[in-house]
Amino acid sequence: MREQSFLPYLAYESRPGSLRKARMSLTKAERMFLIELLETQKLLNSNFDKDVQLEALRDGYPDFYGLEYISDELSPDQTKYAFDVLFMYERIQDALRSEGSVPVEAGCPGFDGNRDAAICGFVSFLAENGKYAHIVGRDGDYPNSHGGQPDYRAMLGKFDAIVRDRSPRDLTPEEANELLAR
Question: Which strand (E) or helix (H) includes residue 84?
């Protein structure tokens, strides 16, 4: 018998941002659907290696389904917040670019991967898919600030006050540097 590619779960966690796998409970209909998908994959792929998962799904052993942790959906508020921060940094970089080159310090430091794991993951997803990579990408680094990011809510408040009566695209280099002052 060949060695298994997974180990039973040692801990079950369902808190947001947890890196451990959460125990997943599936209905019989959901299990049947997954069984059909895996059996189809087995017919199409000679290197199929999911026999243990198939058996676990058929027999109802959730610890051996072999399913990865599935995150909760990002809320509309979290999505808007991430886009607002990225848009602000894009305007800051545009303003500084008008003077010449954009300093590294004008890049968005990202979000804390522990405290803001969902938003950090979302920004990483965007960057990996070619959106805002020029804002958060520091040579392809993952946009995890490790807690070193500025107070974005305060920055957004200042940004909104500055551009309230005009286009955000008219941000001046002086105003951009004022926003970056930590």
Answer: helix 76-97
Share of the chain above pLDDT 90, in %: 25
pLDDT by residue (tens digit) across 135-153? 886 555 567 777 778 899 9
In the prediction, which pLDDT does 20 show? 46
Kindly tell me the burial class for residue 57, based on how many C-beta atoms sit within 10 Å of its own C-beta (0-12, 13-18, 19 or more). Answer: buried
Enter the pTM of the model: 0.67
Helices 76-97 and 117-128, packing angle to 10 deg: 50
Closest CA to 122 of 158, 176, 67, 84: 84
What CATH class is the domain 76-180? mainly alpha
Contact 26, 38 (CB under 8 A): no
How does DSSP assign 115-179, residue by residue? TTHHHHHHHHHHHHTTSSHHHH-STT---B-TT----HHHHHHHHHHHHTTS-GGG--HHHHHHH
Residue 35 burial (CB < 10 Å; 0-12/13-18/19+)? middle
Find the angle CA(131)-CA(71)-CA(28) to the nearest 5 degrees.
Answer: 130
Place of tokens 């894009």: 90
Domain ranges, ordered by start, for the chain: 1-72, 76-180
**pLDDT given at position 82:** 94
